[in-house]
């Protein structure tokens, strides 16, 4: 069984299906993290921001599986 640290408070958390809050230790830590995302304290970097989007450029090639 894997044990991870809660991303909010660093409490040790068992990574098991019975832990409905994983990777968090509690509903409280889960909500704190959600609030941080909502307040834009966390961001996912964008490789090509929309400002750099060229509407006249041809679409990228599609790769078929």
The largest sheet is: 2 strands, antiparallel
Helical fraction: 10-25%
- Average pLDDT: 86
The CATH topology annotation of the domain at 3-42 reads as: Erythroid Transcription Factor GATA-1, Chain A
Strand content: 5-15%
Structure description:
- Strands 1-2 form a two-stranded antiparallel ribbon.
- By secondary structure, it is of the alpha+beta class.
- The mean pLDDT is 86.
- The chain has a domain at 3-42: Erythroid Transcription Factor GATA-1, Chain A (2-Layer Sandwich).
- It has one helix spanning 27-38; strands spanning 3-5, 12-14.
- Helix content is 18%, strand content 9%.
- Strand 1 and strand 2 (12-14) form a beta hairpin.
- The two termini are 35 Å apart.
Highlighted features:
65 residues, alpha+beta, Erythroid Transcription Factor GATA-1, Chain A, 1 helix
Compact description:
The chain has 65 residues and is of the alpha+beta class. The chain contains one helix and two strands, in the order ββα. It is 18% helix and 9% strand.
Secondary-structure blueprint:
Elements: E1 3-5, E2 12-14, H1 27-38
């Amino acid at each position: 069984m894997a044990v991870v640290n809660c991303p909010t408070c660093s409490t040790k958390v068992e990574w098991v299906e019975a832990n409905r809050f994983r990777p968090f230790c509690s509903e409280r830590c889960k909500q704190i993290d959600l609030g941080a995302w909502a307040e834009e304290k966390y961001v996912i970097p964008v490789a090509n921001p929309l400002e750099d989007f060229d509407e006249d450029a041809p679409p990228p090639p599609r790769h078929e599986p």
